[in-house]
Design a protein that fits this description.
The strands form 2 sheets. The protein has a 7-stranded mixed β-sheet with strand order 5-4-3-6-7-9-8, sandwiched between helices. Strands 1-2 form a two-stranded antiparallel sheet. It is built from 9 helices and 9 strands. By secondary structure, it is an alpha/beta fold. Helix 1 packs across helix 2 (about 40-55) and helix 1 crosses helix 3 (about 75-100).
C-alpha cells in the first residue's frame, strides 16, 4: 500500500477490527475483504488499541492481596467497533429499502467495503469520499474485486477540509436536489469543533429535505476522562489525536436543520449482546460516552 498520513492510517485500524470481528464465531457481521486491507501497520495499531482499551486485572484495594477483580478500561473499542459497524449496516440497508434512497455518500470512506459486502435491496449510486492516497491504497489491495450487483460505486479523491470536495461530488454525478443518505463513520472526533461545524453546514447545503445523515461521536467529557486516557494516548502518539466531542449531539445537528436521535452502545437498539460496560442515562453529567447518531434533513 502507498504511505498514508496519520488520520488516513486509522482506516487500517478499522479494517483490522473488522477482520478480527469476521473471525469470531459470534460475529455481528462479515467483512471478508477486510483482511486484505489491514497491512502490517493496521495490525500494529490494533494491538496498541486492544492493550489500551481491553480488560485488565487489578487489586480492588480491600486489604486482600490475593483478591483481584477484572476492570475494563473504557471504552471497549473492539466491541464498540463491532456494534457501530452492525448498527450502521442495518441503518443503511433499512433506509435504502424503506426510503428508496438512490444516492449513498460515505464520508471519509477509508477501507470500507460496504459497496462490496452488503446485500443492497435496491439499485444505488454509492459515492466514496476520501483522500486520493486512501482510495488508491484500497484499489490496489482489492484489485478487480466486484461490487454488489445493485451498486454503482463512485470513488472521489478529495480533501474533506478543503473548499472543492462539494464540486467534485456533484461532478461525479451526485444530485443535490434529490434525497440522499450520508454516513460519517469514524471521523468527527478527529476534527476540531469548527471543522465539524463546517462539515455539517456543507452537508446541509448539499442535501435535499428528507435526506438522512448518520455519524458516530464522543462526548466532550470523553476527551478529558482519566479512564479513556490510555486510548487517547495511542492516537496522540500516532499523530491523529481526538480533537472534539459533543455532549448533546441532537442539539448540534439541529443547528444545521437535521432532526437527530443519538443512542449509546448498550442501549436496546445498539446492544447486539456485545456491550460489556455500564450505560449511563443521558441526564448523568460528566460521563465519557460514545454516540451513534442518525437524523433527517428538514
Amino acid at each position: 500500500m502507498a504511505p498514508l498520513d496519520a488520520i488516513a492510517r486509522t482506516s487500517l485500524l478499522t479494517a483490522a477490527l473488522r477482520a478480527e470481528e469476521t473471525r469470531r464465531p459470534d460475529r455481528l457481521y462479515e467483512d471478508p475483504l477486510a483482511a486484505r486491507l489491514v497491512g502490517a501497520l493496521g495490525g500494529d495499531l490494533l494491538g496498541q488499541v486492544v492493550d489500551a482499551s481491553g480488560p485488565r486485572d487489578t487489586d480492588p484495594g480491600q486489604g486482600d492481596p490475593g483478591r483481584h477483580v477484572s476492570v475494563r478500561k473504557v471504552p471497549s473499542t473492539v466491541d464498540f467497533n463491532a456494534i457501530r459497524t452492525r448498527y450502521f449496516d442495518d441503518y443503511l440497508l433499512t433506509q435504502v429499502r424503506d426510503g428508496g434512497y438512490p444516492q449513498v455518500v460515505m464520508v471519509a470512506a477509508g477501507m470500507d467495503t460496504r459497496a462490496h459486502r452488503l446485500p443492497w435491496p435496491r439499485a444505488i449510486e454509492l459515492f466514496e469520499l476520501d483522500r486520493p492516497g486512501v482510495l488508491e491504497a484500497k484499489e490496489s489491495a482489492l484489485g478487480d474485486e466486484p461490487v454488489h450487483q445493485r451498486v454503482t460505486r463512485r470513488p472521489i479523491g478529495v480533501d474533506l477540509l478543503g473548499p472543492d470536495w462539494m464540486d467534485a461530488l456533484v461532478m461525479a454525478g451526485y444530485r443535490p436536489e434529490e434525497p440522499s443518505l450520508w454516513l460519517l463513520e469514524g471521523l468527527l472526533y478527529y476534527l476540531t469543533d469548527d471543522e465539524t461545524r463546517r462539515l455539517l453546514s456543507r452537508l446541509a447545503d448539499l442535501t435535499a429535505p428528507g435526506s438522512r445523515i448518520a455519524a458516530d461521536m464522543v462526548s466532550a467529557t470523553t476527551l478529558t476522562a482519566p479512564a479513556v486516557a490510555p486510548l487517547l494516548d495511542v492516537f496522540e502518539r500516532q499523530g491523529c489525536p481526538w480533537l472534539s466531542g459533543h455532549d448533546e449531539p441532537e442539539a448540534l445537528f439541529a443547528e444545521y436543520g437535521i432532526e437527530a436521535e443519538a443512542v449509546q452502545p448498550g442501549e436496546e437498539s445498539a446492544h447486539y449482546g456485545r456491550w460489556p460496560d455500564p450505560v449511563h442515562p443521558r441526564h448523568v453529567p460528566d460521563v465519557e460516552r460514545v454516540f451513534l447518531v442518525h437524523g433527517v434533513r428538514k
